[in-house]
Amino acid sequence: MPTLNLSTNMPVDAVIASDILKDCTKAVAKIIGKPESYVMISINGGVPMAFAGSEEPAAYGEVISIGGLGPSVNGKLSATLAEIIETKLSVDGSRFYIKFYDVQRSYFGFNGSTF
């Protein structure tokens, strides 16, 4: 159920992508409190992106989950994901926005139905 969609203007090769997928999957599952088997992560690298009028390294993420999100969890996720993005992609935390969506079960589809 928890999903992280991540876009960055940095190129992302297969090795870096694999590391980010693993690290983000573990972080999202642990912090939200859901099994890793429910977590989906997508990465879009090399996306044309400007932040504050500059094309320096930047990233944008969205976390969607059925429950498990809130001010405390969102803060922990934001800090942890920013650290991963900075370590793996050299995107400074001050150039990374993340939006959190806590959705109702009926708004999340899976296996031809909703949860």
TrEMBL record:
<dbReference type="GO" id="GO:0004167">
    <property type="term" value="F:dopachrome isomerase activity"/>
</dbReference>
<dbReference type="Pfam" id="PF01187">
    <property type="entry name" value="MIF"/>
</dbReference>
<keyword id="KW-0964">Secreted</keyword>
<dbReference type="GO" id="GO:0005615">
    <property type="term" value="C:extracellular space"/>
</dbReference>
<protein>
    <recommendedName>
        <fullName>L-dopachrome isomerase</fullName>
        <ecNumber>5.3.2.1</ecNumber>
        <ecNumber>5.3.3.12</ecNumber>
    </recommendedName>
</protein>
<dbReference type="InterPro" id="IPR014347">
    <property type="entry name" value="Tautomerase/MIF_sf"/>
</dbReference>
<dbReference type="GO" id="GO:0005125">
    <property type="term" value="F:cytokine activity"/>
</dbReference>
<keyword id="KW-0413">Isomerase</keyword>
<dbReference type="GO" id="GO:0050178">
    <property type="term" value="F:phenylpyruvate tautomerase activity"/>
</dbReference>
<keyword id="KW-0202">Cytokine</keyword>
<dbReference type="InterPro" id="IPR001398">
    <property type="entry name" value="Macrophage_inhib_fac"/>
</dbReference>
<comment type="similarity">
    <text>Belongs to the MIF family.</text>
</comment>
